[in-house]
Amino acid sequence: MDGIHLLVVNLSRFQFALTALYHFMFVPLTLGLTFILAAMETAYVITGKEIYKEMTQFWGKLFGVNFAIGVATGLTMEFEFGTNWSMYSRFFGDIFGTPLAIEGLMAFFMESTFIGLMFFGWDRLSRGAHLAITYLVALGSNISALWILVANACMNMPAGAHFDPETMRLTSTSFVALVFNPDAQAKAVHTSVAGFVTASMFVMGISAFYLLRKQHREFAARSFRMAALFGIISTIAVITLGDVLGRLDYMHQPTKVAAMEGLWETSKPPYEPWILFGIPDDKKQTNHLEVGVPFVLTPLLTHDFTTSIPGVKELKNQAVPRIESGIKAVSALKRYGEDHRQADLDIFKAHQKDMGYGFLASQYAPDQDIAKITPEYKSTIIEKTKNDIVPNVFVTFWAFRIMVFLAIYFFVIFAMGSYVSLKRQIEKNRLFLKIITWSIPLPFIASEFGWITAEVGRQPWSVYEILPTVVSSSTHSAGYMVFSLIGFLLFYSVFIVVEFYLMFKFARLGPVKYHDRDSLSKKVFTYQEGWGD
User: What is the rounded (10 degree) CA torsion for 85, 486, 23, 203?
Assistant: First the structure.
């Protein structure tokens, strides 16, 4: 592959990564805050206490800012599939397009309609009707995420799809298999509950800020308690679903697991340690300064104490016959496209399951033409290709660990928050309140690193073991990609500045209705007497 095309591919990947990470800064808060709003409004409908209505309206204002900017950043990402990844779109569009189209209908029709009613229907709808609308917004946003993850799951675990050699496209064979892909279901719930954790920390952190300043104390105390309880449940769920996803990756994406665990050599059960700290060296295929906990990795992934886990070196060697088979498949497919001989089609079908490895090897063929691979040069191409089948171990390893370590931290924070809240001792723990306030960005960071783990860990494939990323991009010039990348950076940076400005402004302003109430409440109540019930 010539250097210019490789540069275009890398620039396209970098631009899409930035676009996705920018967009994903807004998604988790949207997913989680909707259900917290529904819980607050449910308390209002059941108890009739106005404070819960005011809590719903205030946090709903911050949700509205986040949702509006999140939608705007998500629009451009979908267009990038057509502009920067035209080969991917042509090859995979029949599968990928269907859930995206359904998601578009839900995001722009269902959510938009109900969000309007949620914000402007307080005085026009009954309490029960408005509560139903709020729940529909919550369900709509999370179902919208489900369809995105259905599309993404098929990239990781292709299901309900078949390659058609006549059209050179993946075609849909089962919509049911596409929707009920195990990876899609686990990833959708994991992503949603990660959003619940993000929203819980967001609400709890801002509430802690108010309590530190002794502002809006009744409002903040109740918000703090609901967020802490919501958060502890969500954190348990996100850790549990993370284990399910790890198990699925072990079964279907062994290269991702090897990279996540920094496992260069095949494991020796049951002793194999789970590495707490290490510096993976992709060139030397070893870990420096490794510190691990023995007897953990084997049962964690295999759910037994006897099964070994293949390491990077073994996986590379296992890929060699698949690369050889893939070269035969792609060569036969190319000949069939030219002459449509049944013999070539039969050869292709015999080696079709390894077709992706042939596409991966084609980047090293003269002029990227796999038919030009000569027997004497074939071993060199296979050697180069087998080194490409594993993602960047350093990035995947540390992205995964940052996500895991932060999840454990959240569990501790929410557990402590629930305890001090139920004991009505929140304001006595000022250091703890400061820690929570400064922890607001951490769930966003954890979500970003979770996304990095999933997407970098899938490399070198855009569709796992079927379509390599290196052949998925459009044929743009490097200059176009640089210009486009700068434009996206500027465009999205404006959105982030606007988001931060509006969030800080409204959060600092707080629930304005409480300014007078607080001064009165300080004379009548103490937190322990009146605000903890």
Answer: 170
Q: What is the mean pLDDT of residues 494-514?
A: 78
What whole-number distance in Å separates Cα of residue 154 and Cα of residue 259?
21
Q: Model confidence over 75-120: pLDDT tens digits? A: 777 778 878 888 888 888 888 888 888 887 776 677 778 888 888 8
Q: Quote the mean pLDDT of the chain.
A: 86
For 283, phi and psi rounded to 5 degrees?
Answer: -70, -45
The residues pairing with 467 across neighbouring beta strands, listed in sequence order, are: 463
Residue pair 413/202 in contact by the 8 Å Cβ criterion: no
Largest interatomic CA distance in the chain: 91
Tens of pLDDT along 383-403?
889 999 999 999 999 999 999
Structure tokens at 397: 């390893």
Q: Please calculate the CA angle 25-84-12 and round it to the nearest 5 degrees.
A: 65
DSSP 181-224: -HHHHHHHHHHHHHHHHHHHHHHHHHHHHHHHTT-SHHHHHHHH
pTM of the model: 0.88
Distances in whole angstroms, Cα of residue 372 to Cα of each of 215, 337, 363, 365: 74, 16, 12, 7
C-alpha span between 367 and 230 (Å, rounded): 57
Gyration radius of the chain over CA positions? 26
Terminal Cα distance for the chain, rounded = 68
Residue by residue, DSSP assigns 389-455 as SS--HHHHHHHHHHHHHHHHHHHHHHHHHHHHHHTT-GGG-HHHHHHHHHTTTHHHHHHHHHHHHHH
Of the ranges 108-112, 308-312, 414-418, which one carries the lowest mean pLDDT score? 108-112
Secondary structure percentages of the chain, helix, strand, coil, to 5 = 75, 5, 20
On the 0-12 / 13-18 / 19+ scale of CB atoms within 10 A, 456 is buried
The residue written with tokens 């950043």 in the block is 73
Phi, psi of 364 (to 5 degrees): -95, -5
Burial of 228 (C-beta count, 10 Å sphere; 0-12/13-18/19+):
buried
